[in-house]
Amino acid sequence: MSLEEKLDKIRSPKLQNQRETAIVLSAVEDTLKEQHHDPSPTGYLAALLALLSQANIPNRGVKSSDLASSVVYLLDLVIDHVPAALLRAKFSQILTSIAPSLTSGDATAPLLRSSIGCLETLLLAQDGAAWTQPQTEISPRRAVAGLLALASDQRPKVRKRAQDAITHILQHPPPTPSLDHPVADMCAETAMLTLSDALVVSSVSKRQSKDAMKEGSQPGLIHALHLVKAISSASGGWPSRKIEPLCEVLMGVSRSNNEYLTLAAFEVFEVIFQGMADQFSSSKLPRLMEALSELTPSQNDSQLLPAWIAVISRGYDVSAQIDPEGTFHKLPELFGKVSEFLSSASYEIRVSASECLISFLVNCVPDSVIAEPSAIDEKTLEKVARSAQDLLNVRFQAAWMEVFNVEAAFFEALRWRAIPLARSILTIIDELRASVSFNGKKEADMVIGKAIQSMGPEAVLGVLPLNLIRSQKGQPGRAWLLPLLRDNVINTKLTHFRSEFVPLSEAMYQRVIDHGESEKTMEVKIFETIVHQTWSLLPGYANLPLDLVQAFDQDFAELLSNLLYSQPELRPDICRALQILVESNQELLAVDAKEHEVLMRSRVTKTSAQTNLDHLSNLSGNLLAVLFNVYTQTLPQFRGYILQCINAYLSITKEKELLETFVRVTEMLENALVETTTQPQPTKQSSKGSSSSQMPPTTHTLMDLIITLSIYLPLATFPQLFTLTSRILPLTDDPQLQKKAYKLLPRLATSENGALALGSRNRDLQSLILSSAATASPPARRDRLLSLATIIDHLPSSDLYFIPSILSEAVIATKEVNEKARSAAFDLLVLMGRKMGTGGTIEQSRIPHIDPAAPTVEASLEEFFTMVSAGLVGETPHMVSASITALTRILYEFHRQLPHSVVEDLISTLSLFLTSNNREIVRSCLGFTKVIVVSLPTEIVLPRLEALVPGLLSWSKEHKSRFRAKVKHIVERMIRRFGVHEVEKWCPEDGKKLVQNIRKTKERKKRKKSEAAEEGVENDEEREISRKGRFESEYEEAIYDSDDDEESDVASNDADRAPKAKPNNQKAAINGRGTYITELPDDEPLDLLSASALSHISSSKPVQFKSRTRTKAKVDLDGKLIFGNANGTGRADDDTEPMAVDPEEELGDGTLEGGINAYVEAIRGRDSVHRGRGGRLKFSNKRNRGGDEMEVDEEEAVEDKKQRNARGSFVKTRGRELNGSIRSTMTNRGGRDGARSSLAKKRFDPKTQRKGLGVQKVKGGRVEKTSASRRR
Q: Cα-flanking dihedrals φ and ψ of residue 1265, to 5°?
């Protein structure tokens, strides 16, 4: 930004505090005009320095703080544009002018910041000779001393500005032979002195107070560290001669318990290392690393040692970037030194040491050593391998879990160079894993998996053979290696699979065949599992194999083909492997990287990848034939992976073979269509009822293959393809085949040739789509809409008549039941609008059912809205509702591009439909109203509230289709956006109650929210985050979004008519008020990081179930069970006995007569089971009136009945008076009143109290009909 632009901003101030600066600038410019000086940077500088001298008092500081602040602020802007030679010449004068502002104790923070900016620019302009002047004189060194003092100021903005100025000055040294700035030593000494003093003060305070090491208790130490960091971040970095004392002080600071101090110290080290990463200052790094090595803490110092290890790790990371070879040769020594800390008893030290070793292996092993190692490099690798093997010693047994991470990093770092070096490591890990007492099998498997990735399966199996075919005594079988191989094999030799695992699969499968058709034993199931696991390795071997051309020959392809035919359970793995063979090489060719980077990552060059694809292309014809046959023999639900494999090989097939395949499949499809057309009607209908276990028709299968082929075909085949499609679309008796035909156009749009064909034959496709509209089946609706979108996307501007031709179909589709079809219809309407917005002509004479003399109109968004609005005069409510829905969607999309007059007319028109008597139309109008309330500008919607609010509130009492809730939500959104007064102003009298309810509900929510905030119950940010992602588009969110509590608030307005609703537990759980944690046994705390933690968290309050206590069964001397008590009466003396029986409740009393009665009751009683119509068993659900029946005295009941009849009231049970004989064994609570209260407490069940006419109840639960009833 130029000086004039900066001054223009000051001349027109926007803030109050800038007005005085504008006044000062105006005065300076007036002075320059009066003295006939040009308003140049030099003129401004002279005038401002003169004005600054008036604001300062000699030797006493600043006289006018406000004036000085404005002048220095302007001076800071101007001095950047003053020539450097003038600044060097006037250094003493300028420094003397701004010195009072820097040294005054009453100087404000804005004045100091502007003064520091002037001083920074002044010092940057000085040459080498000026920096040689002593600090005792008025020199740059003296100015830097002042900046260092301000760098420790208590005010954060002043301190930060001074530190930034020091950093900028040190980053721009004058031209000198030295690497460091002339004042770098002085800055380092001052910063070191400040840091040491602050550390001493902190130590004294620590002994005097327990809280001395907190951040707020000793800020001077933090400020000193920030100053050191600022000096270290300069381009030259920390001076070389001051590195040792700095490291010593920083390590002392790292010993602190205060995490802020430790973090600040590490940040200083990080800044120092970053400054040394360039070649300019890399010479300081060896000295720094030596200083750090001499400061090695004690091996058991768990406080300082992890910090020291982290600094060492970062230092050698930078060293590896500067000198990769030299750092790599130091790796064995470093590895041995740090690995000693793994024997420490402190877990923190062991973890830090393991992470440091991992960092060494990741950063200090260069790619050149892996690609082409020299003799010295190989010896270094051997030493590192021996060190890695020594980590598996018993001495490091406590750190084996950390050691396994180091071993995994070792394999990843050395990659295939670990093959001859790490055999003993694998042997030791295998022995550990085989031990019964070893608990780290998961970690051991992880290391072996990394070894498989790096060394390859052949090298690993050479050390750890499977021993599954011919196992020898003393050599255990290692079937557990098969899952590890499946998950980790990549980028290896395919020949090894053929030589190792194909024979294994054949041997195991032969054992399965030898077993015959008899029932499978466990051993046979194990053999089958091994066969499946063996072939599950093939996808890994197929991922960028090193020998694809040699290994994947005709014999191996025939083997895979035979397996695809004969063993369907192996098809997924084989198809995925064939697909990966192609796609892995294609991905390698698409990588934008250098050749050596590609070679280091995969050991396969781009040239080799192209050779592999050419080889597979030669075999693709036969493979595709096999895959096509297998596809036709597979059920539809299992065809996905086969189609993906076919798609991969079609992408590399030569054009000649593609044409032959297309012609062959097309002929077969045409013949199948002819057979289907000539098929008798009964047979055709029976073939439609296919289930998931039946093969689909041949036409469906062939159409799938043609759709897959289509994007790879040349342009010459597209006429035949479109002709075939035109034959299928009119077929109404096969909706699924028609659906597949509609999928062809969107598929073609994904390829370059297909897009060209869609553009060149667009008119033919328009005619085809228009002619097939009447025969389109409902299952094909979505795919037809997608096809329409594809045609419109390639529609020329001269053929826009096609849009109004299909507009009604798109509008009606917005009311489809299928959600995907509705979404496709909405997307199609938006695409139509965008196409119309680009301009063009609409020949209305070409539209079906339109007068041929209709004029041609220009395409525009307004015209599109006019077309859609024509549906508002439709004959059916369904069409009107669909038109309103379509207008809602396109208005939401294009309202910013439409004139306000069009939007206002549309709102005025659609608001009239709120008065309609049809609920379907009103439902769409409610959605439209919500969109305009939420999305449109306030100046458009606010004048329309007069018509919208009464129309909305007319449906506020309608409960069907949830109208009441929708209306309330829309009104609430209106109130939220426009205010309650604007909405209430247009409310009718009967609708103001709803607005008042919304206002009270809002106040209640706000009150509850404040109460919850005080209690710390609810977090609105978390609640808002949980609301995200509920809708797939902004339009759906605008239509369907609502507040969380508004559904529960709907009933609050009907409190006088409905009972108060119970709180929603699910909602309470979402808001955080209904989440409970089930306590663990023995009062153990719940580990929230555990995988089982979710099972102990509930949204409802857990119920404490009482555990059933088991009692010891009673036995006699012979060991026989005793029921009841031991006296043989059969009575239980203890009511708590599990087997106790109350004899009064039993029909059988132990006698023969009692047993017969019990049997009769079980067969014919009330609770007996009997057969109804059709021989079905029926159970009675009537209650037993024996013990649960409430009985009262008969006389009291009759008297109570008379009293109630006298009052004109009587008890009815299902329309009949309660009568019958009622006895009472309960306690009489005082005559008639007691009986009445007892009756009031018991609610009679009509099912248990009902008796048929003429039916009299007798003892035993049976009923007998009277003579009168029999006569009836």
A: -85, 140
